[in-house]
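Re: beginner question about structure tokens

> Can someone show what the tokenized structure looks like for a real chain? I only ever see the sequence side.

Sure, here's an example I had lying around. Input first:
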Amino acid sequence: MNAATPQERTKTRRDVLVAAGCGVFVAVMVGAAFAAAPFYNWFCRTTGFAGTTQVSTQAPEHILDRTMTVRFDSNIAPGLPWKFEPEQNEIKVRIGEVATVLYRVANEAARETFAQASYNVSPPTVGLYFQKINCFCFTEQRMQPGETREMAVVFYIDPALVKDSDQDDLNTITLSYTFYPLREPAQPVAAATGKPSGKL
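And the corresponding structure tokens:
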């Protein structure tokens, strides 16, 4: 067999480098696609971007005299046979004061259904200061046929808001929820058949 010429060896090396470069590019793009959603969620939680609220584990140390009106909005996405509404349309709270509000949810279907709520506040710039201590939106919700349930959200408005001059004229915040349907989780073999899954 004839040995490859210098030109052929150079072309082969170039083809290998191009193929390797394409492989690296594809791997980076796939990795970026998987990382995009978690990064976006982290960014929104950290900055309050798009009205994303914050999560707190305890109440603030100080309650201020400034009062805010908080309104409550509830929505159901298409395909979810639930009724969902706040028990109060709005309340007045002092900044730093912990408040608890109840929503009433009813499954109007004749079957078990699953859903999870998304949420935001408006105006969007106040998301950085709206702190939730507890919320039904943190977990998936499973409702039996015809079941009615009260779901609570516990929150406060961070006193740091008064240091933000952009919020000087703010007196009303709207907290909005939308429930979206989820697919029914797959049953384990034992649950589906009624037989034990372990070996005898």
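Each token stands for a local structural state, so reading them left to right follows the chain. Confidence is low (pLDDT under 50) at residues 30-51, 188-200.
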